[in-house]
């Protein structure tokens, strides 16, 4: 092996299985495609089972080894059932804890129900998935990777998004704390903090002239990202290239948090 060969495979994911929650569309779907391209077998888990199956079919047609499962990650028993089913197929090595929801509502008018839904998914759902993965890896003495989807809003203020920002702050602290707690078990836990990414979640806001312009002005690169621009960080945090990285929150935000 030449001195360079070891570096040529640092992003290789062949032989690994990755679970992507909320993988039917948007950022999760781009992560699924990128991990497939680097050799991983991928499972898309999404509330919208039909959309997940359609996305999986599309990726399979492109040559990827992708399957789909319906799962509402806000229900801990559904998450446990998902992991039990995956265990029967050999388990998973990499978790992309990506499913999330956002809302832009003035804090003083935020309805109880919306607050509950936000935390059910962005906080409880994220934790259910982390816990289900880690419990099984620890019991099996198996290493693993968890990549949580935080946000710039988990790091700096994001007006009109107080509960969203708070929920992503929780994701940041789940990441740091569980990284330290599970490090002795060989489980690496990191997060990605994207800036604005054009997906179905954000298109409406980005297309409003005033809001779109304000977002561009707060982004050093002057534009939102494409989902594909988040996928490189995801492959990095899932692969051997990041074997000494844990508890970190990698901003992929076009310079938003640098300003
Ligand atoms: N788009 C952005 O600008 C942006 C910026 C920062 C962070 N993020 C975060 O990235 C993640 C993905 O965002 P996106 O823009 O791709 O979102 P999206 O709305 O396009 O996709 C979210 C996916 O999650 C699925 N989902 C929703 N509820 C679920 C549940 N209970 N169980 C399982 N799946 C569920 C949806 O069906 C959908 O397929 C989210 O956590 C979001 O907060 C997005």
Question: Keywords, please?
Answer:
single chain, 259 residues, alpha/beta, Rossmann fold, seven-stranded parallel β-sheet, 9 helices, 15% strand, binds nicotinamide-adenine-dinucleotide
Could you characterize what this model shows?
With 259 residues, the protein is α/β, with parallel strands linked by helices. It has one domain: 3-Layer(aba) Sandwich (Rossmann fold). The chain has helices at residues 5-8, 26-37, 49-61, 76-88, 112-140, 162-182, 203-206, 209-217, 228-238, and strands spanning 17-21, 41-46, 66-70, 94-97, 144-149, 187-194, 249-252. α5 runs parallel beside α6 (162-182). The radius of gyration is 18 Å and the shape is globular. The mean pLDDT is 98.
In short:
The protein is α/β, with parallel strands linked by helices and 259 residues long.
Helix-strand layout with pairing:
Elements: H1 5-8, E1 17-21, H2 26-37, E2 41-46, H3 49-61, E3 66-70, H4 76-88, E4 94-97, H5 112-140, E5 144-149, H6 162-182, E6 187-194, H7 203-206, H8 209-217, H9 228-238, E7 249-252
Parallel strand pairs: 1-2, 1-4, 2-3, 4-5, 5-6, 6-7
Residues 21-22, 24-28, 46-48, 71-74, 98-100, 102, 121, 125, 149, 151, 194, 196-197, 199-202 line the site of nicotinamide-adenine-dinucleotide (NAD).
